[in-house]
From TrEMBL:
Originating organism: Pavo cristatus
Designated name of the protein: Ectonucleoside triphosphate diphosphohydrolase 1
Record function comment: Catalyzes the hydrolysis of both di- and triphosphate nucleotides (NDPs and NTPs) and hydrolyze NTPs to nucleotide monophosphates (NMPs) in two distinct successive phosphate-releasing steps, with NDPs as intermediates and participates in the regulation of extracellular levels of nucleotides. By hydrolyzing proinflammatory ATP and platelet-activating ADP to AMP, it blocks platelet aggregation and supports blood flow.
InterPro entries: GDA1_CD39_NTPase
Species lineage: Eukaryota, Metazoa, Chordata, Craniata, Vertebrata
Subunit structure: Homodimer; disulfide-linked.
Amino acid sequence: MDEPKVTGTKPKMSTTRKILLMLGFLSTLAVIALITVAVTQNQPLPKNLKYGIVLDAGSSHTNLYVYEWPAEKENDTGVVQQVEVCKVEGPGISGYSQTTEKAGPSLEHCLQQAEDVIPLKQHQETPVYLGATAGMRLLRLENKDAADKVLSSVEKTLRSAPFNFQGARIISGQEEGAYGWITINYLLGNFKQSGWKKFLHSLKSVSETSGALDLGGASTQITFVPLEISSESPQNLLYFRLYGKDYQVYTHSFLCYGKDQALQQKLARDLQITKNSRLSDPCFHQGYQRTINISNFFKNPCTSIEKKQFPFSQLYIEGEGNYEKCRRNIQDLFNKTNCPYSSCSFNGIYLPPLQGDFGAFSAFYFVMNFLNLTSDVPFTLDEVASAVQKFCALPWHEVKLQYHQIKEKYLSEYCFSGAYILSLLENGYEFTTENWQRIHFLGKIGSSDAGWTLGYMLNLTNMIPAEEPPARPLSYGSYVGLMVLCSLVLVSVILLAWLLFHKPKCLQKGIV
Ligand SMILES: Nc1nc2c(ncn2[C@@H]2O[C@H](COP(=O)(O)OP(=O)(O)OP(=O)(O)O)[C@@H](O)[C@H]2O)c(=O)[nH]1
Ligand SMILES: [Ca+2]
């Protein structure tokens, strides 16, 4: 019997099917090649970093900052970041008025630290700037020759460092305020908004920039964009065009109203009414004692108008620890009697109505941070006042015991500083219970300290363009994502087409 023949009845592939299959294969190959080329061709180049150094020669001390940014993104906003900060040992440069030749050498240790952070081959091209603030403004008023000699000494040291020296000068209070405002808004990404953020902001009429409050040792600055621009006090108005947008900014710097000089002013006033060399001070803790040398006390331009002869050369201060009394005592520093403008802060200085959020940094932050008053959810004005009151009421021996790790100079003054900050903001600028919580106490934004130095460098290196630089519509990530998505859609369409042209058996009616 013949076995039934099992013949290979493989269905022959039709020519159309073969062509379609080939087409599908080739398109998949093309899509893969397209993605590979796109991804490799458009990959960001290896980071080419640039560096810049700014020395903040403040009244109390000098800080050296090293900034870093990718060279190819120089004009983008938010790309410059602080990579190093070095606190110079000893006093601020104005403290070298008697030994001017030592001002420069005091910076050497921090300059060495900058040399270690910045790659050797980039030392020469790295710009270094020094800006001196209120301490040097005061020294210039008191003794111009000493101020010039201090600046020459620091210039000599900076020129001998391996960096590209770009100048050492005293910046004005206006500049200090403006650059602080630029720094925080640059770091917060408020200048240039792209894509959705820009669209959302155009829908809500949100306040686009944040005001800046800086409290130093010798001066304090307030800077913000007011709701309405008034030309009553042109010296307080600045005009900027940044990333294609105009900003009209109010700024004022109060010399002698930094927290150290405010204390000096307060003591000078207290001295006027003391009968003897003992002074009971409500702004220091009970049990705290401090001696002040009166002979040098009135050389300072912040206290010189109170100068008079005393039958004693030393003043003995004894703490009383009374917050309410301290507030009343400090209030006298803010003269609210005469205002030649539509509205004023104090001492007859124009201040437009406060507007928007404020970032408060330097000593505003140091003090509030010490008092645990800098959480993300802002404290109310009453909560802040009662925290300062409670702290001031602590006897000195208890404060020392509880915070033994903190420098006595700082520790002894937190009560005064807390009360002073409240007086300045509440009485001076007239923040109220309603807008108090719009003040955000901040030390750093990302890795960068809030302060004027970054804004100063961005300005001097022309890193903030007036017009918005042409930008790629998509980021690298979004571009790759879109490429992949389009390619997948393409492959799916081809696959679908193939399925439609040549229905596989399993999809034919009746089989499934
Ligand atoms: N508690 C505390 N106080 C600090 C610290 N650093 C500085 N201070 C004090 O806070 C005040 C302000 O400090 P800065 O903002 O550095 O002031 P500055 O830049 O030296 O002074 P200006 O030239 O007026 O800006 C001064 O009284 C300093 O002594 C800190 O880390 N902790
Ligand atoms: Ca400062």
